[in-house]
Amino acid sequence: MSEHTPKPEEHSQTEHQRTPAQNGRMWVTASLVVIALTAGTLIGRATAPSVGAGAEGDVTQVLSGRNSSETRDVDFKIFWEVWHLVEDKHVQQPLDYQAMLEGAIAGMLNGLEDPYTAFMSSSASEQFEEDLGGSFQGIGAEIGFRDQVLAIVAPLPETPAERAGLRAGDWILEIDGESTEELSLLEAVSRIRGERGTAVTLGILREGEDELLPIEIIRDEIDIKATELSFEERDGKKLAVLGILTFDQETTKEVKEQLDVIEKEGADGIVIDLRNNPGGLLNASIDIADLFLPDGQLVVTEQFRNGKKNEFHTKHGVTTDLPVVVLVNVGSASASEIVAGALKDQAGAPLVGEKTFGKGSVQELETLKDGSSVRITVAEWLTPAGTHLDGEGLTPDIEVAITNEDVEAGQDPQKEAALEELQTRIP
After folding, report:
1. Cα separation of the two ends of the chain
2. I need a surface site. Which of 79, 282, 305, 330 has the fewest CB within 10 A?
3. Cα-based distances in Å from 118 to 9, 35, 46, 132, 369
4. How far is residue 325's CA from residue 339's CA, in Å, rounded to a whole number?
């Protein structure tokens, strides 16, 4: 998710947008945003559940109300055996039954080995809602899992994370000196986020480096703009560089305004810079693609486990017909990958830079009876050409890396390569 202070839940409903409901909230974000999501512990505290006689009788129905062949093959009696052993023998008394239950649920979801499927206790869910309704304080980065290791998806522009030197793709091996190896995404978020003025130290392993880098970040208020625009003169041609930094409810409006400026300036082509854009709202990504593609073009396909597919198409047609080149890197994720994939497959726009993050799954937020909630991965995204984004990402047509020396010298070889490629596409 991404913000410039607005929250995903504030967006007005469109045909392309998943809106908040009591159940069934859908996320197209790259991961949990450290500046916004979840606070408190994953396992909360509440009154003990009623675990009475006979509760473990037909446990498949007790736990789910279902009795499928798959669950019949699982011996749930072992669960109750352990439960009763803890009741009878554990030194800690009285037991916190609610914590035990929530821990069991969290463990069940961990068994899926899907870092984006997770449980939130009622207290954590309540804090989650409060965070989405208020101002954002944190480090200003989005995190996820890269090669099964906690990592920075993207540091957002002009935030503490960027100022501290965090980079897209950095692995987070420690948080305040403690290993992240066993942490869920929610647990990592809760440890990294915090109040303005407080500090957190991340132990960072950077690709190509051997030593752990301790990076201290002072948390602050986070305010992210949606776009930025600049122009470059090359061989008598005026080239626009349009940076799209996030996909929220303001993005489409801002991009349209920037396209008006580009037209008035008489630009000959556009580099769309999606680097370090970790994603955002599905409808925003489709609306942005709509500005560069003809009416009726497939933008992305949502594929569910039963083979059902939802296709999302453009509806309004091209706003600009200028040649386009797209800049991407490992910090380009989710909604960014949707736009990049659509422009590549449908308009032949070349991708320049580095392979994208590969976050192409959709999470649904289900609120449970006691106020706790579960985020469940329910679908995956496919580009118009059928490329699976999740875990794969998009490989650029022109691969250009940025070295540590480039960063220190303030050089941007990826941008230079994109501008050079754009020049070849101008009549």
Report:
1. 38
2. 305
3. 20, 18, 19, 18, 17
4. 12
Q: Which amino acid is at 360?
A: G
The total of other beta-carbon atoms located within 10 Å of residue 37's CB is 27
Annotated catalytic residue, options 345, 372, 390, 415: 345
CA distances from 216 to 139, 141, 161 (A): 10, 14, 9
Q: Which amino acid is at 180?
A: T
Q: How confident is the model at residue 3 (pLDDT cuts 50, 70, 90)?
A: very low
Rounded to the nearest angstrom, the gap between the alpha carbon of residue 362 and the centroid of all alpha carbons in its chain is 10
C-alpha angle 237-241-247 in degrees, rounded to nearest 5: 155
CATH superfamily of 227-424: 2-enoyl-CoA Hydratase; Chain A, domain 1 (3.90.226.10)
Angle in degrees, CA 75, 80, 84, rounded to 5: 150
User: Which pLDDT tens digit goes with each residue over 174-215?
Assistant: 999 999 998 888 789 889 988 899 999 999 999 888 899 999
pLDDT tens digit sequence for 80-130: 999 999 999 999 999 999 999 999 998 999 899 888 898 988 877 776 665
Q: What is the pTM of this model?
A: 0.75
Least confident of 17-26, 138-147, 207-216, 380-389: 17-26
16-42+120-221 belongs to which homologous superfamily? PDZ domain (2.30.42.10)
Establish whether 334 is a catalytic residue. yes
Residue 141 neighbours by CB distance under 10 Å: 31
Burial class (CB in 10 A: 0-12, 13-18, 19+), 23: exposed
Instruction: For residue 255, give the H/E element and its range.
Output: helix 251-264
Element (H, E) at 304: strand 298-304
**Identified catalytic residue from 125, 220, 248, 359:** 359
Domain-wise residue ranges, the chain: 16-42+120-221, 227-424
Cα 147 to Cα 157: distance, rounded to the nearest angstrom: 24
> How far apart, in whole angstroms, are the C-alpha atoms of residue 191 and residue 135?
18
> How many angstroms separate the CA atoms of 251 and 364, rounded?
23
What pLDDT does 114 receive?
87
Q: Give the mean model confidence (pLDDT) for residues 309-336.
A: 93
| Catalytic residue from among 334, 336, 361, 373 | 334
Strand 298-304 and strand 351-353: the pairing is: unpaired
- The question of whether 345 is a catalytic residue gets the answer yes
